[in-house]
Every structure is written in structure tokens, then in C-alpha cells.
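Supplementary Note 2. Why include the ligand at all?

Several targets in our set were suspected to adopt different conformations when bound, so apo predictions alone were not considered sufficient. For every target with a known small-molecule partner we therefore ran a joint prediction. The input for flavin-adenine dinucleotide is given below.
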Amino acid sequence: DIASYPTQQGPQRIEHYRVAHQQGRIAALNMLGKRELYDRVPFFWTAHYGTRYEYLGHATEWDEFHLLGSLPDKRFIAFYGQQGRLAAVCSAGMYTLTAALVEHMQQPMTVAQGIALFEDYQG
Ligand SMILES: Cc1cc2nc3c(=O)[nH]c(=O)nc-3n(C[C@H](O)[C@H](O)[C@H](O)COP(=O)(O)OP(=O)(O)OC[C@H]3O[C@@H](n4cnc5c(N)ncnc54)[C@H](O)[C@@H]3O)c2cc1C
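The joint prediction is reproduced in C-alpha cell form.
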């Protein structure tokens, strides 16, 4: 995870286990002469005092923020938007939703679309 790589938002360097695994595989393929780009939605999880938190995407800055669910119950999701686009999500206790979101976020989506998916998963 010491390597920076180009993205549409400029050079990025993300220190996550999963990103390091994905990029190690891509680096090896490129050393073997393939031409593979890193195009996955960054994802990591971490656990603190018995609670697992998940983070999808990558937002160094944002102009829109929505927190849904309950922080005291450790069952929440926070949406970070940048210029109308869903840039990142931080959550706890919503693992089925975040598994779906990581797939949906492979294509650009709006914060409103993320919130609509949250509402689908509540129903
Ligand atoms: C305290 C801490 C907590 C973290 N928690 C999380 C978390 O909860 N979730 C998450 O997604 N990420 C977490 N991370 C980040 C994650 O650990 C890194 O993103 C990931 O380990 C990077 O993998 P890597 O293979 O690029 O590098 P590393 O895992 O650092 O592997 C590099 C390897 O190269 C070896 N090496 C270095 N120099 C040489 C040399 N000259 N010759 C031979 N070998 C050498 C090192 O000994 C090491 O084994 C955490 C990091 C820290 C420090």
C-alpha cells in the first residue's frame, strides 16, 4: 500500500488490506505483460471494541453528508457525496446493504440512489 496510482480524482494512495490484496494481484499480472487497471471500489472493514465498521469508496472531501440509522445501536450508514455523486459510505451493522452497495458503486451513482437502496433494505 505504499504505491500511489492514477484515478479520475488524481493520484491516490489508500492503506487498506483489501486494496493491497487487489493491487498486488494487478501488479503481478502487469509484470507478466497484461494491461490491467485498478478499477474496484475501495473497501475496508475494521473492528473496534466488538463493533465492525465498514467503509466503501474514498472521499477526502465531500459537500453532502447524510447519516441514517442509529449510532447508539451501532446500526447506521453515512453517505458522503461530492458534486452530486456518492463518493463514500461508512457503516456498521448493515452488512447485506454494504455488500450490495459495493457492487452498485462500481458504476457512478448519486447519494439519492444510495439512500433509496438503504430504504429498500429497511423494507
Ligand atoms: C495498526 C494498523 C491497523 C490497521 N488496520 C487496518 C484495518 O482494520 N483494515 C484495513 O483494511 N487495513 C488496516 N491497516 C492497513 C493494512 O495493514 C495495510 O493497508 C496492508 O497491510 C498493506 O499491505 P501491503 O502488502 O502493501 O504491505 P505490508 O502488509 O506492510 O507488507 C509489506 C511486507 O514487506 C516486508 N518488507 C519490507 N521491506 C522489505 C525488504 N527490504 N525486504 C523484504 N521484505 C520487506 C515487510 O516486512 C512486510 O511483511 C492497518 C495498518 C496498521 C499499521
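The first strand starts at residue 5 and ends at 7. DSSP finds three helices and seven strands in the chain. Comparable summaries for the other entries are listed in the accompanying table.
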